[in-house]
Each structure stands twice: as C-alpha cells, then as structure tokens.
Write a structure and sequence with these properties.
It is built from 18 helices and 12 strands. It is of the alpha+beta class. Among the domains are: 13-190, no CATH class; 350-426, no CATH class. The relative contact order is 0.11. The chain binds adenosine monophosphate and magnesium ion (MG). Adenosine monophosphate binds at residues 98-102, 128-129, 132-135, 256, 260-261, 270, 272, 500. Residues 98-102, 128-129, 132-135, 256, 260-261, 270, 272, 500 line the site of adenosine monophosphate.
Length: 502
C-alpha cells in the first residue's frame, strides 16, 4: 500500500509505510531477526533519485532518525526484518547453502514506480553468516552505492542504493577498516541461487512455492502461458542476456557472477570487485581473486548463459521436460546478440543496419585491442569525427581520436571504412554527434575515482562521494568544472587491485 504521507513538514520514518511481501512465504525461506546496531552511526551519502522511488527526499535521510533506521539501530515502522536463505555456484563450483550473511530485508514500500524492497547490507550477523562477521566496510559500501546509481543513470537494469551510513566500529579485512551499511532497493532480491537451494535439497514443494511467488508478484503476465515455469526461465534468460549486453556496451565487468549474485529480475546485483574497462583488453579480469578469468570481460557473456543453465536445472522439476527447458535457454544468444548489435550501432551513430556492419564493429574492437585504448574516452571522442573532411586534413581532424591509439595507422585504416559506412546512410555530423553523446557516457565509475572518494571518506570527508554521485547521475552530459572525472587514470591507478574482500 502506498501510504507515504506528505504533511509539508520534514518527513520522518513514521511517515513511511512498510510491508513485507516476501515474509508471506513460509518460514523455511528465511530467518526473522533484528539488525545488530552499530555505535554512533553517521550519515555518509544518499541518492535523491533512489529516494524518490520510495517517496522520500535525500535531505530527510540525513536526519538522525533516518540515520539510525538505515544503520539498523532502530526499526522503520512496519518492518518485518529477515535474512533470506539461498545457495549457489561460486566460480562454477556448487557451494551449498549461502544466504543473506550480512543483509537484512526490512520489507517493501509501494513507490511511484512500483514496489521496492529495502535491504540493509552490513547490518550484522545472521544464521547464514558462516565465517563472516555480518559487516560491510565503508570502502565497499561506497563502491556499491556509487556504482548502483551510476548503472541506473546509464540505463542498465540494476538494484538501487538509497544511502550509506557509517560507524567508527572497526572491521577486520586485509587491513582494519570501519563499518558501514548500504541500504539497497530492488523490487526483489531473489536470486538464481534461491531456486537452486530448494532443488539441491530435493524440496519440490518449496521450489514450486518460490516460483509461484516470483511469477505472481513479478511476472504476472506469464501466468497464462502454457508452461509458466518454462516461460519464467525464458523471460529471465532474456532479461539476463539484455542486461549483459548493456554491460558489454559500457565496458562494465561484474567480477563475481556466481549464481547467488544473479537476480531473478535480471538486475545487476551485488557490486563487489566490479570494474569499468579502461585500457581495452577483451580478456581483462577486474577481480584480483579471479585468477582463471572466469568472469573476464569476454567470458561474462558465456557465463551469463551458464548461470541461466544453472537456473534451468533447478527449475527442471517444474518445467517438466529437458526439451522445454532447453528451448527456454536457447533464447540467450540471439537476444544477447540482437541487443548488443543495437547498442553498438547506437554507439557508432549508425541509424541503419547493413550485412557487413559486424565486420566494421569487430574491426574497431581489434584496433582498440591492439592499442589498449581507453574504452569510455574512445567512444565519446568518436562522436567528434567529421565524415567529409578534405582527405589531406583527415589526420588533423581525427587527432583527438587518433591520439588515443599507439597504432595510429590502424585507426586511420578503420576510419576509412567507418566514413564510407556513414556516407552510405547520409549521416549528418552534428546529428550523429548529438545521438552518440546520448549513448556514449563521458563519466563512468573508474576505479581510481572511487578510490579517491573512498580515501577522502575514510578521513571523515564525504564531499567527494557526494560530488562523484552528482557527476555520475548525468553520465552523458558534459559538466563544466568536472573535467577531471572524465580523465584517464593516473599512473598510481595501475596498481589498484579490487578483490572479493568487502
Ligand atoms: P558475495 O560473494 O559477496 O556475494 O558473498 C557470498 C556469500 O557470503 C553470501 O552469502 C554473503 O552473504 C556472504 N558474506 C559475504 N561477506 C560476508 C560477511 N562479512 N559476513 C557474513 N556473510 C558474508
Ligand atoms: Mg552475493
């Protein structure tokens, strides 16, 4: 129910109306428990756009009452806090039971664009914590917060992040760090691994219960399908394929695509050792812990499909036949390729589709690979290309783009083909540039930018986090005075390593 009351006065937690639809599932699906308070919590940052999705404003979230509630020190009215159980494949290996080891679901709010669940990540131990301490550190919470909102602004399906609050309580990782809580929002946090859990435990009733809950709540249109469970698998597979096409098109690498980190709604979920491609290498591995490169930029496409297979395997008892499951899974590559093709055409400013466009696009990625060109800057600068510069001036005109390449003749050769292709559809420079600038971001969450904001925050200054959020909320718009956020990484960034430690 939407019962958010605007009284004109400051919004307080009492104005929120929370229910918990997930809690209507039988107790086997979760453990009810309270968040564990943190000492002297403080406000770090909040997202205005995320706040609006639940009828709030970011300024209210800085109030003491909200800071306490978002840290888990007090309860938002109506909350029915719980930790959900799930299992999963980690790095391709069955890991058995996992579950919300440090995340606590408070419930859901009916917002202007639909239902949003609120989840506190880092709010203390649960029965699923295993060896973990139930906490998240400020560093990883800021990364998740910024990237969730950056991805949303890029138009890529993702869970959202409402806020980060912190506490000086010490938390042991490779170093001693401090605790934080990121409040995440999504219509649901059910994962592929939530289904695998019941399948591997040989609990068909629970499996069916969960599938029915997901269909009835989030895929109601599939109820009428001949085989709703096969239809669910096909639709999740489609959404996953489209989401990953979105990742490839902006150079996003998730880093730890275990089946417990795959959303049943096709949302980018669980931001840990993610990265945005800088110097292009198709085999780039962003997660320092991923030595085999299972989740590299190139591999994450096939892994997305593999993960859908794991989901299909879990749903098989409901689907009935291997053939029906296989048919549902077969949509993956065609949907992925069609979506990526559409996105790459837009990135190159192409309005029409030609048979040999694939070769042109592959050609660009080959020269990018050869020179390890910065992914974001290249696509953005490509919009500056002029189709009809006099031949003797081409190199001069193309300078800002050519400068990104070590092998400039390779780019020149490719540019000849690109210009010919643009002429073929009578492309107009100014129009194409405007269209390209709407899809090729100038600002992405480069690791070094996150790192700078984090180090500032670790010294008690949160202005860097907030400024970076503001920039990333408008990734396609040139923002005067914010040029440094579009810059190539400095030399020290080459030594930055992100791992699963969070
Ligand atoms: P991840 O690889 O971060 O998606 O986490 C895998 C599993 O480990 C999930 O079940 C998490 O809830 C759990 N986990 C990760 N970090 C912690 C922690 N610090 N305390 C408790 N559980 C954790
Ligand atoms: Mg996870």
């Amino acid at each position: 129910m939407a019962l958010i009351l605007f009284t004109g006065a400051a919004i307080t937690p009492a104005d929120l109306h929370i229910e918990n639809g997930f809690a209507a599932l039988p107790p086997a699906f979760y453990t009810r428990l309270m968040p564990t308070p943190l000492p002297a919590p403080y406000f770090v940052a909040a997202s205005e756009r995320a706040a609006r999705l639940i009828g709030l404003d970011a300024a209210s979230l800085a109030q003491d009452d909200f800071v306490a509630a978002l840290t888990g020190n007090s309860l938002l009215p109506g909350s029915e806090p719980l930790a959900a159980v799930y299992s999963g494949h980690q790095f391709g290996v069955w890991a058995g039971q996992l579950g919300d080891g440090r995340a606590i679901l408070l419930g859901d709010i009916d917002g202007p664009e639909g239902r949003m669940e609120l989840q506190l990540k880092g709010a203390g131990k649960t029965p699923y914590s295993r060896m973990g301490d139930g906490r998240a550190v400020l560093r990883s919470s800021i990364r998740e917060f910024l990237c969730s909102e950056a991805m949303a602004a890029l138009g890529i399906p993702t869970t959202r992040a409402l806020s980060v609050t912190g506490s000086n309580q010490r938390v042991m990782r490779e170093n001693i760090e401090t605790a934080a809580v990121v409040t995440r929002m999504a219509p649901s946090f059910v994962r592929f691994g939530s289904f695998e859990h019941w399948h591997y435990r040989d609990k068909p009733d629970e499996l069916k219960r969960l599938a029915d809950y997901v269909i009835d709540t989030f895929y109601a249109e599939l109820r009428g399908a001949e085989n709703p469970y096969a239809a669910l698998l096909a639709e999740v597979t489609r959404r996953t394929a489209r989401m990953i096409a979105g990742w490839q098109a902006v150079g996003f690498m998730h880093g730890v695509m275990n089946t417990d980190n795959m959303s049943i709604l096709g949302l980018t979920l669980d931001y840990g050792p993610f990265g945005f491609m800088e110097a292009f290498d198709v085999n780039h591995i962003c997660n320092h812990t991923d030595q085999g490169g299972r989740y590299s930029y190139a591999n994450q496409v096939a892994i997305g499909h593999w993960n859908c297979y794991a989901l299909g395997n879990a749903l098989l008892p409901l689907i009935g036949t291997v053939e029906a499951a296989q048919q549902a899974l077969d949509v993956y590559m065609p949907v992925f390729e069609a979506k990526l093709d559409e996105l790459l055409h837009a990135k190159l400013g192409l309005r029409t589709f030609e048979a040999d466009d694939r070769a042109l696009i592959d050609g660009l990625f080959t020269v990018m690979q050869g020179s390890h060109v910065d992914f974001t800057l290249l696509f953005r600068r490509l919009g500056e290309l002029q189709v009809d510069a006099p031949t003797d001036q081409l190199e001069l005109r193309d300078e800002p783009i050519r400068d990104l390449f070590i092998d400039r003749p390779a780019f020149d050769e490719w540019a000849v083909r690109y210009r010919a292709r643009l002429r073929k559809e009578a492309s107009v420079d100014a129009e194409r540039r405007a269209a390209m600038n709407r899809v090729n971001p100038i600002y992405v969450l480069r690791n070094y930018l996150a790192q700078q904001a984090i180090e500032q925050a670790q010294n008690g200054d949160y202005t860097g986090v907030r400024e970076l959020l503001a920039v990333l909320e408008h990734p396609f718009d040139e923002q005067p005075g914010k040029e440094r956020y579009a810059a190539l990484p400095p030399d020290w960034a080459a030594h930055l390593e992100v791992s699963c430690s969070s």
